[in-house]
C-alpha cells in the first residue's frame, strides 16, 4: 500500500511539472506536452491503495475523472498510461483518451470524465461475473459530489436487488469543484445512502490506509463470497485545486491548510516504523517508486505522436455502410458536417 501511495504522489508531482511546461505566463490549457485538463488526486491515495490491495487482475475497477492513484493501485501499465496522458501513439488508447479516459483491459480498469458514469459498467461487470459463476468482483469509485446522480442510485439498486459482487467506494474530499459538500446534500455520511437500498454501508472517517484496508477486506470478501454489494465512503482530502490552474478563490485558507497537514502517506510511514520497518527500508520503497515513475515519464515522452490519419481509426467497431476505416471519406464528412 505504501509503495502504491508514494508512486501515485510522486507520479502526480512529476506530471505537474510536465503539465505546466509551455502553459505560462497566461494559462493556456491547450499548450504544452499535456494539453487539456488535469485532475490530481494528491490526498486521495489511501482510498485506492486500501481497496485495491484486495483485488486481482480479473476484478474490475471503474474510476472517475481523478483516476491516477486508482489506476496505479489497480496495476495499470504505468508506461502506457503515461503515454496516453501525453497523447502518444503507444498510449493505452493510442493517445486519444487522455488522462480522464484510461482503459486497460489487461487489469480490467476504466475511468470516465462523466461523474458517476463508472457505476453502471461496474454493475455490468458484477452481473457478468455472477452469470458466469466466477468469483471476480467489481469496484466503482466516485466522488461525494456524484452521490445524487441517477447513474449511481440506479446502480446501487440493481446491484442490491440482484445481489451482485460490486463495491461502491465514495471518495469524500468535501468538495465538488467549488461546491462544498453541505451545499450538495443534507446527508453528512454518504454511506447512509446504502440504507435506502438494503445493502451494508460503511464509512471510514479518516484516510488511514489500514482502516480503509480493513473496511475493504470485509466489503470485497462479502462480494467475492456472493453475499452482495457494499457501499463504502472514505474521507480523503484534496491537497490541490480541482484541476491544475484552479485558483481556489472559493476555498477558505484554513481548509487548504488542514488538507496539507493531514497526510495519509506520512501517517502510514509512521505506522510502518511503529511496526518495526526501518527508515532505510521506507526510503528504499520511495526510491524504487520514484525510479519507476521517472522511467515511465521519460519513456512516454520519447514515444511517437499519433498520425493525423489515426483519428479515423477506432471510431466504429462495425463501420456503417459508406464509412471505411482505411481511407478517410471526405465526401461523407463534408456532407454530414463536422460530426
Ligand atoms: C454528469 C456530469 N456532470 C457534471 C460534470 C462536471 N464535473 C466534473 S468534476 C465535477 C465535480 C466532481 O466532484 P466529486 O464527485 O466530489 O469528485 P472530486 O472532483 O471531488 O474528486 C463536476 C460537477 C461531469 N463531469 N459529469
Ligand atoms: Mg469531491
Automatic annotation (TrEMBL):
This is Thiamine pyrophosphate-dependent dehydrogenase E1 component subunit alpha. Residues 295-315 have a biased composition (Basic and acidic residues). The keyword Coiled coil does not apply. The keyword Oxidoreductase applies. Its cofactor is thiamine diphosphate. SUPFAM superfamilies: Thiamin diphosphate-binding fold (THDP-binding). InterPro entries: DH_E1 (IPR001017), PDH_E1_Alpha_Subunit (IPR050642), THDP-binding (IPR029061). One of its GO terms (molecular function) is oxidoreductase activity. Keywords: Oxidoreductase, Thiamine pyrophosphate.
Amino acid at each position: 500500500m505504501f509503495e502504491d501511495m508514494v508512486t501515485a504522489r510522486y507520479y502526480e508531482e512529476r506530471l505537474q511539472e510536465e503539465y505546466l511546461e509551455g502553459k505560462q505566463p497566461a494559462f493556456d490549457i491547450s499548450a504544452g506536452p499535456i494539453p487539456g485538463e488535469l485532475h490530481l488526486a494528491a490526498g486521495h491515495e489511501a482510498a485506492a491503495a486500501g481497496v485495491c490491495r484486495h483485488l486481482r487482475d480479473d476484478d474490475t475497477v471503474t474510476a472517475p475523472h481523478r483516476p491516477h492513484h486508482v489506476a496505479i493501485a489497480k496495476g495499470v501499465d504505468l508506461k502506457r498510461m503515461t503515454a496516453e496522458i501525453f497523447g502518444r501513439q503507444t498510449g493505452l488508447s493510442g493517445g486519444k483518451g487522455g488522462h480522464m479516459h484510461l482503459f486497460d483491459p489487461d487489469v480490467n480498469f476504466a475511468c470516465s470524465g462523466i461523474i458517476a458514469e463508472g457505476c453502471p459498467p461496474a454493475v455490468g461487470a458484477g452481473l457478468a461475473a455472477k452469470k458466469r459463476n466466477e468469483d471476480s468482483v467489481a469496484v466503482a469509485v466516485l466522488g461525494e459530489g456524484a452521490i445524487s446522480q441517477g447513474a449511481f442510485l440506479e446502480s446501487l439498486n440493481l446491484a442490491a436487488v440482484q445481489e451482485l459482487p460490486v463495491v461502491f467506494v465514495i471518495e469524500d474530499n468535501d468538495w465538488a469543484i467549488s461546491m462544498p459538500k453541505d451545499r450538495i446534500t443534507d446527508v453528512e455520511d454518504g454511506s447512509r445512502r446504502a440504507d435506502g437500498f438494503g445493502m451494508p454501508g460503511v464509512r471510514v472517517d479518516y484516510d488511514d490506509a489500514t482502516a480503509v484496508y480493513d473496511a475493504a477486506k470485509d466489503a470485497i470478501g462479502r462480494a467475492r463470497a456472493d453475499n452482495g454489494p457494499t457501499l463504502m465512503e472514505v474521507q480523503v482530502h484534496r491537497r490541490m485545486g480541482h484541476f491544475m490552474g484552479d485558483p481556489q478563490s472559493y476555498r477558505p485558507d484554513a481548509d487548504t491548510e488542514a488538507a496539507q497537514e493531514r497526510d495519509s502517506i506520512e501517517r502510514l510511514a509512521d505506522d510502518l516504523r511503529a511496526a518495526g520497518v526501518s527508515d532505510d527500508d521506507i526510503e528504499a520503497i520511495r526510491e524504487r517508486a520514484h525510479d519507476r515513475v521517472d522511467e515511465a515519464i521519460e519513456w512516454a515522452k520519447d514515444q511517437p505522436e499519433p498520425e493525423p490519419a489515426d483519428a479515423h481509426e477506432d471510431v466504429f467497431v462495425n463501420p456503417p455502410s459508406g464509412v471505411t476505416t482505411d481511407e478517410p471519406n471526405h465526401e461523407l464528412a463534408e456532407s454530414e458536417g463536422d460530426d
